[in-house]
């Protein structure tokens, strides 16, 4: 099966900062799409300043997994687009949230909180990303730890709901730790937040980080799950009354 992946990115740092533009000449979205292409996936990219932020109904309806990178323009994302993305997630589309997108509107909606606050420091220090869930599909083929030579530090306390699954934790050279790989389930949708990926550094060019994202796409992709009904339900088996119920005249009616 070829997974259909849309990579969304603000694409502002790369345009406004020459050094970051040199680091990601095709944009962060282009960098991610490129290694996903090589992994045999069908990729599409979308950016903030496109009409509908590049996330039209046609695009979303043809997306198995949406990857989201954002940093400096979270407020610019239209609430109507966020709502459309959220409904697609509930219906089974996967979502991978990268780095500073912890503060994005869509991740806040997933978490049910407007905070998502944390410690940070942009010193380019060493990070050790430790696997803490060795049976999880997202760590398939990975070593027990990934050493990132230079990264922005994110530190606890990370103000989010307790994750359904914790996959990675990070240690930073300055002493902080962070829950760097977490999973949530919302109705039929699967969500993975992955911390590495600051725009000034090279994490997305590391084979191990690329493998995490590739694995995450496979994990988050929709499956052929049952359709569920809600509201009043007729019995699926004959109900045999076992006694009298005072005040009840028509069972099954409200």
Give the tally of β-strands: 9
Query: How far from one another are the termini?
Result: 47 Å
Order of helices and strands: EHHHEHEHEHEEEEEH
Mean pLDDT: 94
Give a verbal description of the structure.
The protein is an alpha/beta fold and 254 residues long. The chain is 24% helix and 28% strand. The protein has a 9-stranded mixed β-sheet with strand order 2-1-3-4-9-8-7-5-6. Strand 8 and strand 9 form a beta hairpin. It starts with a strand and ends in a 34-residue tail after the last helix. The mean pLDDT is 94.
Structure keywords:
alpha/beta; 254 residues; 9-stranded mixed β-sheet
Short summary:
The protein has 254 residues and is of the alpha/beta class. It has helices spanning 13-16, 18-23, 27-38, 57-61, 79-90, 105-111, 207-220, and strands spanning 4-9, 42-47, 65-69, 94-98, 119-131, 145-155, 165-172, 177-186, 189-194.
């Amino acid at each position: 099966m070829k997974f259909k992946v849309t990579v969304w990115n603000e694409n502002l740092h790369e345009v406004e900062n020459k050094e970051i533009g040199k680091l990601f000449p095709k944009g962060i979205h282009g960098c991610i799409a490129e290694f996903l292409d090589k992994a045999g996936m069908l990729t599409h990219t979308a950016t903030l300043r496109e009409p509908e932020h590049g996330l039209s109904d046609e695009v979303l309806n043809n997306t198995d997994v949406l990857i989201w990178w954002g940093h400096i323009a979270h407020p610019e994302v239209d609430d109507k687009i966020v709502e459309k993305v959220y409904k697609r997630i509930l219906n089974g589309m996967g979502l991978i949230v990268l780095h500073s997108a912890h503060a994005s509107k869509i991740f806040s909606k997933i978490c049910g909180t407007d905070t998502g606050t944390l410690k940070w420091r942009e010193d380019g220090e060493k990070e050790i990303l430790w696997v803490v869930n060795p049976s999880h599909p997202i760590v398939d083929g990975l070593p027990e730890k990934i050493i990132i030579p230079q990264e922005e530090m994110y530190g606890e306390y990370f103000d989010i709901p307790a994750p359904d699954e914790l996959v990675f934790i990070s240690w930073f050279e300055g002493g902080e730790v962070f829950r760097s790989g977490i999973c949530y389930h919302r109705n039929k949708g699967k969500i993975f937040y992955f911390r590495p990926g600051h725009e000034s550094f090279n994490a997305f060019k590391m084979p191990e980080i690329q493998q995490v994202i590739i694995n995450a796409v496979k994990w988050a992709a929709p499956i052929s799950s049952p359709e569920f009904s809600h509201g009043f339900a007729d019995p699926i088996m004959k109900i045999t009354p076992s006694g009298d119920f005072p005040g009840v005249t028509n069972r099954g009616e409200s």
